[in-house]
């Protein structure tokens, strides 16, 4: 029987990762075995599933686990007892972004970018709106986000008429691009079908701004960012077989119970 202590929901995802890493280093989670389902870890640690997901991706970046889409999250290695996840993570997460989780970044964008879109619809110059249209067309033609996604949102921020808001949007994107955890979330859970939907969302934003409709622009941007968060927050276990329903190597049904 494995034991994981509850973690305060206010703590960062790195603390969750450290708790799980401790169990790997101690041998409670053996190399080659599958970790409990994301929803089970969230329940035992008393945190959100999105925080657990961030922790699992951070653990993968540090070499503790491997996320196998369609199968589960597997323990890949044990580290010495003196090792620390925080020490390992410092090698792959920049100093600036190390304590900021991907969902915190998205929540920040949600607070700022809808208003930027509304202000751009009201205050943007014809030249600035032309740049928004150009960025939107480039994004559609590329068929994938790449740097065109940032260029689109940056063009909107630049057209909002507030240099401080423009700078904040740029800084938040810098933090996101500096976060390997954010990047790995995209790699695992964002595919071409997801981006087809996102492109439609971008079209709605651009159309509202170019028609100088601030209310519709604000709502379109808000809906887009909420949709991104919803797509990334989809439970990993929802796309993977339930750990309790899969046979172990011995052929027996394996049930892993976690107690507080």
Describe the structure.
It is a single chain. The protein has 260 residues and is mainly alpha-helical. The protein folds into two domains: 2-94 and 237-259, Winged helix-like DNA-binding domain superfamily/Winged helix DNA-binding domain (Arc Repressor Mutant, subunit A, Orthogonal Bundle), CATH 1.10.10.10; 102-234, Four Helix Bundle (Hemerythrin (Met), subunit A), CATH 1.20.120. Helix content is 60%, strand content 5%. It contains eleven helices and four strands. The strands form two sheets. Strands 1-4 form a two-stranded parallel ribbon. It has a two-stranded antiparallel sheet with strand order 2-3. A hairpin with a 3-residue loop joins β2 (65-68) and β3. The chain starts with a strand and ends with a strand. Mean pLDDT is 77; it is low at 89-98 and 235-260.
How many domains, in number, for the residues? 2
In terms of DSSP E residues, the strand content is: under 5%
* H and E string: EHHHEEHHHHHHHHE
Beta strands, count? 4
First-residue to last-residue Cα separation:
10 Å
- What is the CATH-assigned architecture of the largest domain? Up-down Bundle
User: Remind me, CATH topology of the largest domain?
Assistant: Four Helix Bundle (Hemerythrin (Met), subunit A)
Low-confidence stretches: 89-98, 235-260
Shape: elongated
Q: Tell me the structural class.
A: mainly alpha
Radius of gyration: 21 Å
Which class of the largest domain in CATH terms? Mainly Alpha
- CATH superfamily label of the largest domain: GntR ligand-binding domain-like
Strand order of the largest sheet: 1-4
InterPro entries: GntR_C (IPR011711), TF_FadR/GntR_C (IPR008920), Tscrpt_reg_HTH_GntR (IPR000524), WH-like_DNA-bd_sf (IPR036388), WH_DNA-bd_sf (IPR036390)
Protein name: Transcriptional regulator GntR family
Keywords: DNA-binding, Plasmid, Transcription, Transcription regulation
GO molecular function, one term: DNA binding
């Amino acid at each position: 029987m494995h034991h994981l202590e509850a973690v305060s929901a206010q703590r960062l995802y790195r603390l969750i990762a450290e708790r799980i890493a401790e169990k790997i280093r101690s041998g409670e989670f053996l190399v080659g075995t599958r970790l409990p389902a994301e929803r089970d870890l969230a329940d035992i640690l008393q945190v959100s599933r999105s925080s657990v997901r961030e922790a699992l991706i951070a653990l993968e970046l540090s070499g503790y686990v491997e996320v196998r889409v369609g199968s589960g999250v597997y323990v890949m290695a044990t580290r010495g007892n003196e090792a620390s996840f925080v020490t390992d993570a410092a090698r792959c997460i920049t100093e600036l972004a190390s304590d900021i989780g991907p969902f915190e970044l998205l929540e920040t964008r949600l607070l700022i970018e809808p208003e930027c879109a509304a202000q751009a619809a009201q205050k943007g110059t014809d030249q600035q709106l032309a740049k928004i249209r150009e960025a939107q067309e480039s994004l559609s033609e590329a068929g994938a986000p790449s740097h065109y996604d940032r260029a689109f949102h940056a063009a909107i921020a630049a057209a909002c008429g507030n240099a401080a808001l423009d700078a904040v949007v740029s800084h938040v994107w810098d933090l996101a691009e500096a976060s390997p955890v954010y990047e790995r979330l995209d790699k695992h859970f964002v595919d071409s079908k997801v981006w087809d939907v996102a492109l439609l969302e971008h079209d709605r934003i651009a159309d509202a701004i170019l028609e100088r409709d601030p209310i519709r622009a604000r709502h379109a941007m808000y809906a887009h960012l909420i949709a991104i968060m919803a797509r990334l927050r989809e439970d990993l276990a929802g796309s993977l077989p339930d750990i309790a329903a899969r046979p172990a190597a011995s052929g027996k049904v394996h049930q892993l119970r976690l107690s507080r």
